[in-house]
Amino acid sequence: MRVFQKASRKQRGFLSTVKQSADSLLGLLNDIRRKSNVEARHLDNAKVETGQPSASDHRSLHVLVAEDNRVNRLLTLKILERRGHRVVVVNDGKAALRALEKDTFDLVLMDVQLPEMGGLAATAAIREQEQSTGRHLPIVAMTAHAMQGDRERCLDGGMDAYLPRPIDAEGLIQMIEALAAPSVDADASRRDDDGSQTPAAGALRETKPHAPDNVGMEPREIFDPAPILASVEGDEEVLRQVVELFSEDAQAVLSQIRDAIERQDPERLTVAALSLQGAVTNFGAQRAVDAARKMESLGRHKDLDGARAGLGWLEDEVNRLRHALSEFVTPSDRCVPTDAESVFRKRAMTPGDQESSRILIVDDDQDTRRLMRHELERDGYLVEEAADGGSAIDVYQRTSPDIVLMDAHMPDMDGFTACSEIRKQSGGTTLPILIMMSLDDGESIADAFHAGATDCLSKPLHWAVLRHRLRRVIEAGRAQKRIDHLAHHDALTGLPNRLLFLDRLQQALARARRYKEMVAVVNLDLNGFKQINDTMGHEAGDQLLMGVARRLVTFARDSDTVARFGGDEFVLLIGTASDRGVGVVVRHILDALSKPFRLQQGVVSITTSIGAALYPTDGTDMQSLLTQADTAKYRAKRQGRNVFQFFSRDTAARISTYQTAESTLRAALEGGECSIRYRPVVDSTTTEIVAAEAIVSWPQPELAALPATALASLAETSGLITTFQAGLLARVCADISEWQRPDRPPFRVALSLSARPLMQSDFVDMLRRILTETGLDPGLLELDLSDATLMQNPAQYLPRLGALKALGVRLAVSDFGTGCSSLSYLRRCPIERLKIAPSLIGHIPDDEDDSAIVTTIIGMAHNLGLRVVADGVTAEKQLKFLRERGCEAVQGDYVGRAVRAGDVTRLIAQRETRGGAVIVQCTLPYSAWTRH
Fold first, then answer.
1. Which of 895 and 911 is assigned the larger pLDDT?
2. Which of 81-85, 603-607, 743-747: highest mean pLDDT?
3. Which has the minimum average pLDDT: 146-150, 181-185, 648-652, 893-897?
4. What is the pLDDT of residues 790-805, one digit of tens each?
5. Which DSSP string do the residues of 188-207 spell out, in sequence order?
6. Phi and psi at residue 90, in whole multiples of 5°?
7. Which of 655, 657, 576, 559 is nearest to 614 (CA)?
8. What is the pTM of this model?
9. Cβ neighbours for 593, distance < 8 A, ≥ 6 positions apart
10. Whose CA is closest to 416, among 394, 444, 440, 381?
11. Could you give the CA distance from residue 360 to residue 370 in angstroms, rounded to a whole number?
12. Which residues is 560 bridged to in the sheet?
């Protein structure tokens, strides 16, 4: 199967074991089915003599599925459709009764826990109607809430069989085909007169839950993949749709649970927890099942304090399951989740129902509601009903209709009051509400518009006018929704933009002040995003941003907000937060974003830096929280990659200094305000000048106050290094070109390069252009790459170094001996010169260890055919030590200080004309940021 990701050897072995186990399980189920068919054929032979149809004649059945859980609906629909059965799906008991009034079905699959009317109540209504028809419709109970006594209650309530979840595909098919077979007597299919079960029905009375082998999984594993693999029967696309539907629905149900706890509504809490329990059962996620079952129990016992305390456990388990499932299924890295529900509706409903609007009819006259429902459903609308204004508000909160048709005059609460109350609800301000009344009542018309009605309709209704009015309202509403969406959402990722995020943050802070809660603002951006944009193109960058957005949404709760502020910057708003809760979310995000992204241009990996600020400890208003979160992110970025930091006031002042320095550096570079000085490098034996090192100096005090390494890091992390390096190359090459004259021997020029500019796709072309413009022969240019850069990933830089060597330039390694230096990669790199780091030179000859290391480096470099330069010589004893060990050249304060570019000409003129080289060496950004 292709649903397994590329993973580590251990993970691949585990997933292979799961696949083999699932395949074996499906084979076993097929064997059972074949055996059942053999038995069925023997039974059929006996029935042929009596003229009864064969039960093995797999005729197409018309099946009604009453199920409110989208994942369960999709799984059931796919299983039945593969066998050629026709399926109609409804989501509550009342809708099931209406479907049975309109059409004839061979069998009903009924979830026990349904909104509006439960499965047992719907079954009782069906059985009551059958008393007048003499027909017995087989009804199978489906539930994941398998508690003691449930089976008996379902069978005693008039159902014919009991099917716990997760669904066993083959068992389900055998059950419905046997129950719906014409040869099975309706009464015998339930039980004989003496109470014993008939052989046919008894074997199908209860299908046990799927119980696969453990396949080597530890008890701590998040979920058991075998049940869901068996349910989807190896269909990769269905599996992906199921996982995506579950991820969406789980967020919504968790939101309902939180809302029920807040509103002190134990009944609603119980229903939502049961729904969640049914969903997680499909995946064999025992810990999530236990958490949902515990929440359901707390709801039944009306223990809302216990539910509030256990909410974090439930959310952690469900989000952990969502993450595990997203890793189990091959990720598509699309920003907008696949609308698997649309696929489901296209298969399960008539064409007129697709993309239907939901209309709420509010009228105290039952006949009027029934007539309107009939006409509207014929036109493909989804219809909800309410008998008075108070009920209308409840239905609105539960179903979120697209349009409300409201009678003006009703008992208890009239249409005007109900309209005003709905306008106060979430989303009610833009909802189209059409009030129905006699249009010759001018006072009522005024009252309707004063209450917030969108329009008025005349009673009795004229259906042509109603259809036209509804179509116009729907089109206008959709257009307005599109406009609102574009104004408040990012065009690329579909996430909320800065405007919508600030609005939600303001609401969250108001709520937090009222209920004394904590709110978190989390700021993150992607390290190296500009390099991906530059090297792979903006289309790849857009794909990456959409993939990041998709993964971020996966870990956000329904009550949280994920927004894109622009570029590669994303911001999360986490309501009712805690330090621990924010830490859990961020750890999930760091883990998710560290995994490779599959783009059309190739596979890329990224890291991220994340900062968080909490209300009220770090700030009490929107701007301060956003600023503090950005400050924390900046601190995380300076500490490395894939780092998360909370805001800390102890470091805020220092970070502010760096932020000021970044702005100053940017302005200085744009204005060309830096200057270059050249420090001589001398031959260790003759002490003659053989090179010069270029040093960048800054007149700005904000930049001069920073250490050299800090300023170098600032140029890297701010993204300014690429522009600056290109300008520096041009300036230094222009200086050296000016120094070259016909009467002087040629000399080489050396520059140290940062990794980021070196890896730009156009770097070689840019360098070729500079050499052409300045007139330098490529053979006279020497480029230095720091030892630390090469050690990070030698294989990454070798191709680019080869391209530079082919261009004709010479290559060297600087700062050798720091960190985890190794001479092994030098054999593969086309370099000619090696510079020993100042940190080693500064302690010789007094430090025996450093002296031994320097001696070894010089000897090994000579064995590789490399010339050696020692950096940082500050005393005569150091120069003597290096000379004795054969180091060719040295530099440092002892042998010469930096001079301006104009003074280099004088230094060149003073050297003998017998030959040699002047090496102009710029060590930016890894060392020698000198302040003057």
1. 895
2. 603-607
3. 181-185
4. 766 666 677 888 888 8
5. TTT--TTSPPPHHHHHHSBP
6. -130, 165
7. 576
8. 0.40
9. 526, 548, 551, 606, 607, 608
10. 444
11. 12
12. none
What is the spatial distance between Cα 156 and Cα 159, in angstroms, rounded to a whole number? 7
Cα–Cα distance between 616 and 517 in angstroms, integer?
Answer: 9
3-state SS track over 206-237: ECCCCCCCCCCCCCCCCCCHHHHHHHHCCCHH
What was the pLDDT predicted at 910? Answer: 61
Going by C-alpha positions, the residue among 895, 846, 851 that lies closest to residue 874 is 895
∠ CA 770-774-780, rounded to 5°: 85
Q: Do the beta carbons of residue 1 and residue 236 sit within 8 Å?
A: yes
Tokens representing 503 are 């609005």
Burial 643-679 (b: 16+ CB within 10 A, else e): bbbbbeeeebeebeebeebbebbbebbeeeebebbbb
Place of tokens 């729904």: 275
Q: Letter for the amino acid at 762?
A: D
Distance in angstroms (rounded) separating the CA atoms of residues 583 and 210: 36
431 in helix, strand or coil? coil
How do residues 807-860 score in pLDDT, each as one tens digit?
888 888 888 876 555 556 677 788 888 989 888 898 899 988 889 989 999 998
User: d(Cα 201, Cα 190) in Å, to the nearest integer?
Assistant: 6
CA-CA distance, 781 to 736, in Å (whole number)? Answer: 10
Residues in the chain: 932
Cis amide prior to 138 (ω within 30 degrees): no
Rg (CA), the chain: 37
Report how far residue 448's alpha carbon sits from residue 714's, in angstroms, rounded to the nearest whole number: 63
